[in-house]
TrEMBL record:
FPG-type domain location: 235-269
The protein's name: Formamidopyrimidine-DNA glycosylase
Start and end residues of each Formamidopyrimidine-DNA glycosylase catalytic domain: 2-112
Known catalytic reactions: Hydrolysis of DNA containing ring-opened 7-methylguanine residues, releasing 2,6-diamino-4-hydroxy-5-(N-methyl)formamidopyrimidine; 2'-deoxyribonucleotide-(2'-deoxyribose 5'-phosphate)-2'-deoxyribonucleotide-DNA = a 3'-end 2'-deoxyribonucleotide-(2,3-dehydro-2,3-deoxyribose 5'-phosphate)-DNA + a 5'-end 5'-phospho-2'-deoxyribonucleoside-DNA + H(+)
One Pfam family matching this protein: H2TH
GO biological process: base-excision repair
Amino acid sequence: MPEFPEMENYRRLLSKHIVNLPITGVTINREKSINVEPEVFVERLAGARIVFVERRGKHLVFHLNDGRRLLLHLMLGGLLFYGTEEERPDRSTQVEIAFGDRILYFMGLRLGYLHLLSVKETEAALAKLGPELLDRRMNEERFADLLKGRRGALKSLLVNQQVLAGIGNCYADEIAFEAALLPSAPVQGLTPDSITRLYAAVRKVLSEAADIGGYMEMPFMAGDTVTGSYNDRCKVYDREGETCERCRGTIVKSELSSRKVFYCPDCQHEH
């Protein structure tokens, strides 16, 4: 599932390429991916412009010039591609938004969605999300406050969108590794030093992954050599049986609260 780095990479690319361009056409191939009648969706977007692209957690919010919003959640398997009909990948699309001869293709939205909402509806849909971890208002003290009184495993906390927005399976494991903490480490047992390491790991892993395009499997557009570059940078995620680059131990895979976890049992600890 696309997480903070993947969606932030998309936000940056979309901001460069589609902002203030008039929407010249809309195609709906799967009605369940949207929240209004297709005719209404098409009519309300025709001629509109996207004036700002915002990311909130794992969501993208497209701000339209008439004040409405498009709320995107790619969920599991969702992808974006921007280009001409000739450049598009050979994959089914659920929604297509055209900007002249270039089209923004929404693919893999079997569980994801693109909803047309008012400002209030958008705010309500995102109201339960926790804070943004790379927001300028976030600091180590605020981060530590978020952890106070929390119980359970570290990974379960990291992927809880109501506590911390934007982290999923992959980056939870990568952050735990960077902080030298086990994904199963009890949150209530973390020492002040552990929390300091964890906060530094969150900032380092998320910012570095976003800057090199996350781990998406497909380029955003023709000539895009950035998107997906983090695929080869993961230290533990999907690396079962490989050698730990930090201590030369062996990466293992197990399960925690029905989620797969990857970690090094030799250099990751409970605090």
